[in-house]
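Form P-L/3: holo structure prediction, ligand protoporphyrin IX containing FE.
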Amino acid sequence: MYTVGLQSAADAFLLASLQAQLVIALVLLFIIIVFGIGAHKDDGHDENSPVFLPGHPLLSIVPFFRKRFDFLNSGFRITGQSLFQFNLLRDTVVVVSGESARKAFFANKGFDLTEGFKVLSGAIPMVRGVTSDLQTRRIALIHKRLSAVQKNEPLNQLIVPILEDTQRVMDSWGSSGTFDPFDKVYELIFQTTVRSLSCAELADDPAIVARLKKLYDKLDSGTTPATVLLPWFPGPSMIKKLLATKEIYDIVVRAIDARIASGISRNDSLQMLLDAGDEKLVVVGFIMGLLIAGARATGTTASWLITFLGGHPDWRGKATDEIKRLLEMYSPPESTSAKPSLSSHLASIPLEAWEAETPVLDAIIHETLRVAQPHTAMRRNLGPEVSIDAKTIPSGAYIMYPFSDVHLNPELYPDPWKFDPGRKEEVQTAFGYVGWGGGKTICLGQRLAKVELKLITSMFLLGFRYDVVDSTGKRPEPLPQPNWNDILLCRPAKGSCYLKYERSELPL
Ligand code: HEM
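OUTPUT (holo model):
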């Protein structure tokens, strides 16, 4: 469990004088320099080893934290190789690209996602009893429960609450206005993700949902070179992350305890976990871990999807027609005079139709993931040593595969930055599209994410007329482009992209 006294230790540290923090920072710098220089191992020129990034081992990796997309691209450019390596202090990281590397990366049994993510992401502090003890067995159980949430019946039962949450949040936007989709649409997705993956006690309380989102944002924004390179060092960022993790943990545990104490059974994911008799660590791990995994990726996708449609009226029209066709089929106009809300109207479309009768929405989601999901897959080679393109990936090394290698490759996707859901589906190369992962690591929340995206997009398209505008209120030329250097949300430059909306009165 959380070590007793962590909170007071953290508070004390944050309140420590500037002087003390400066001394610590200098010591830290010293450690980094000593260890960093010692870690560069490019002396042997072993021709079986991937080439090292040239330059000072520490300075050359600074952009890894700040501008990862540029860093990886320039690594390939500078080395002129399809594989290169660099050191994160004592750890070796190999970045790979190209078809044979993809095949090895996605298929190799020794390449472990959890180990790679844990070290290279630095997003979630490892707290004994909360995050670091989620070994393979517990993670497997969490994945099993996640697939249970997405079986036909539970997923079907999520449609109404997701639509109702969306209706409530959209009503709060008023009849017209301008907002940043990367704030507002993401907030909406956060709400529906809390609804889908946790419990009514949290999802019914907008203040708690807002607090949770703020805390998860703190975890994201608190990821610094220090938290990745020296995760054990209690620097200010790490302390802030620990405090945020602890508060999230407390909120989740309070909700679980309240449910157990009430003795009332509710129809949600928490109940499913409790009824399965899972130990508390699994229940907490499910909610804490999947909330962030689910909300971030789905939030990025939804924000960009709605923005892209704002700039592409042709595809917006096709998607709107598709949803209206489904409504005509499954929700013929009522003879009563009372007009149903948009959410209850859409709720009459069954799950099977959302999944199997929406080729336009499917194509739009597919293309959004290609062009606006800035994922770099991370693994650790748990052994044995592997050869990729005649270069050795030692046991224990970390391996990275940037999805831009395929998704932004002009040979596979001509004019790759162009949003064009009409592209031909099949790319003739192994793992030519990895929007939901590939090989042995396929997204386990895919079914829920797709349904959530379709429901929210439908509510937005039928509920509002809207345009993409810049900070002056004019349509930006060119339209905003996804920023792959923002590794979490892919947000364009702050202030460059807004949606101007007006509620529409569609005949229902
Ligand atoms: C649009 C939304 C989403 C996208 C684009 C997405 C994409 C991905 C991708 C590309 C991977 C593979 C990562 C890799 O190989 O490094 C992955 C894995 C995963 N995703 Fe998602 N995801 C989304 C939503 C979700 C949601 C909502 C959940 C949970 C409810 C989820 C749970 C997971 C899990 C547990 C894994 C790890 C699978 C494993 O360890 O084998 N994802 N996702």
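COMMENT: The two ends are 53 Å apart (CA to CA).
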